[in-house]
Design goal:
471 residues
Length: 471
């Protein structure tokens, strides 16, 4: 056995004379046998003996399921240039998007300014941060400088798909096909194009072709699951997503897809577990927490739903302004505390998250708290720099510390959601006997273009009540 041979070499003091290749191969064998810890040990030995074997670094990266696992093995790695690249690659594969990682790429680009690999990693960082415009810009420049490089082109096609950029996606599919039509990346690019044109059968055909070329090509399994969801073939979608998470347990898209599929089947407790896995992998992605909150609501757990939706607000602000997210973390993280801290952030808050929180408070019969959140929904029409009425005396410098903003005027304008919130507030004021406020809110609604008929009915009721009281 190889393990006995390695032990014998160690006893004889000849371990340092090994070249690292057998350790690398044995690590792969152990990984295939699900002996993850032993596989890590042998791959670490391999990269210490032969740090130029990049394949060993990549195999080691694939065994790291969490950032903590990466931190654990870091002290055992050799002080080598490839170790720096490994840390970068591992962090990107773990969907880390912290400023320190961007700084590391910037430093490496100083030494390797035209490296397609480093530029691709930067594009992927922006992609994971949902900064699609910047990611697309970097990928586009890479296509110009390295038109026949197909590595990570499937991710570029994902960016173009999300941006609904059909012309560029068509060009990319043509370019990839003319370069090498027998690469799984090419098949995924073409599949994404057909998916964008709603030709789901053709898209699945190309994703299957990608898997024929590489059975473990993660993107193809995940994207094929998405297509099956579009075709309402939930059984096939679940099968595809499960294959994806078997290949890579870090793929939050597959976990999220499983949650969505089980929601379609109205198996909300199953969906909840998968959404929790997705949120654990992407704690700063508001979409994960919104799905989790909606799932909690459907299984009649409003308190947990509120906590999840408040985490979604935090996550949304973390992408825009980390300082603001930190300012309210104690309030939003714990669930049912007062929402007053939320008013002190000079950042935009998503009304599509705020409104469900308000409705959940209404479900809990906490109408005063619901009213505060409804007021916050309406306030987003004007954009950031929203301050609670009781906190008007707070200085502008304090507001800047809370959100660093001054970016007022970037609100949503009047939307269906903000109109519904205004209608709720008008009815609440009517119930409390605040006729003037209710009339003002209803009058604003009559001019919005949304909820107009209900607003007119409320105005009639208000006038009747006021006439009755006046008479």
């Amino acid at each position: 056995r190889l393990e006995d041979w390695f032990h014998e070499r160690t006893v004889q003091g000849k371990e340092a004379q090994n070249q690292g290749w057998l350790e690398y191969l044995y690590g792969i064998v152990l990984a295939k046998s699900n002996s993850t810890d032993d596989a890590k040990d042998y791959l670490v030995k391999s990269v210490n003996l032969n740090p130029f074997n990049w394949s060993a670094w990549l195999e080691l990266r694939d065994l790291l399921g969490t950032v903590d696992a990466l931190r654990t093995i870091s002290p055992t790695l050799p002080p080598h240039l490839f170790a720096i690249f490994f840390h970068l690659d591992a962090n990107v594969s773990l969907y880390q998007t912290s400023p320190s990682i961007h700084s590391n790429i910037t430093e490496l680009l100083i030494a390797f300014p035209t490296s397609p690999y480093l530029l691709t990693q930067r594009a992927l960082l922006h992609y994971h941060s949902k900064d699609y415009d910047e990611s697309e810009s970097i990928f586009s420049s890479l296509i110009t400088t390295s038109p026949h490089r197909l590595d990570s082109l499937d991710h570029y096609s994902n960016v173009l798909y999300v941006m609904h950029n059909r012309p560029k996606l068509a060009f990319l599919a043509h370019l990839a096909t003319s370069t090498d039509k027998f690469r799984p990346e090419t098949c995924c690019v073409v599949g994404n194009y057909y998916s964008l044109t709603s030709e789901h059968e053709k898209a699945i055909m190309y994703f299957r072709r990608a898997l024929t070329l590489d059975r473990n090509f993660l993107s193809a399994w995940t994207l094929m699951g998405h297509e099956y969801v579009e075709m309402k073939n939930t059984h096939a979608a679940i099968s595809s997503y499960r294959r994806a998470v078997d290949i890579n347990t870090r793929d939050y898209r597959a976990w999220y897809g499983l949650g969505q599929t089980y929601e379609v089947l109205e198996m909300h407790h199953y969906a909840l577990w998968y959404f929790q896995r997705a949120a654990a992998l992407r704690p700063y992605d508001k979409q994960m927490w919104q799905a989790l909150g909606a799932c909690y609501e459907k299984i009649d757990r409003p308190i947990e739903a509120i906590k999840a939706l408040k985490r979604a607000l935090m996550a949304g602000m973390a992408f825009i302004e980390p300082t603001a997210a930190a300012t309210i973390s104690s309030s939003f993280g714990s669930g049912l505390s007062s929402s007053s801290d939320a008013y002190n952030t000079n950042v935009f808050l998503d009304p599509e998250i705020l409104y469900p929180i308000a409705i959940l408070y209404e479900t809990l019969q906490d109408f005063d708290e619901a009213a505060e959140w409804m007021e916050l929904v309406v306030a987003q029409e004007e954009g950031p720099a929203v301050v609670h009425p009781d906190e008007q005396s707070q200085s502008q410098s304090q507001l800047d510390d809370a959100g660093g903003g001054g970016e007022g005027g970037q609100g949503t304008g009047v939307t269906v959601t903000t109109s519904r919130a205004r209608m709720w507030l008008a009815r609440w004021a009517f119930q409390k006997g605040e006729m003037g406020k209710a009339m003002e809110l209803a009058g604003e609604l009559c001019q919005d273009g949304f909820e107009v008929e209900e607003a007119k009915a409320l105005v009639r009721d208000l006038r009747a009540r006021m006439e009755a009281e006046g008479g």
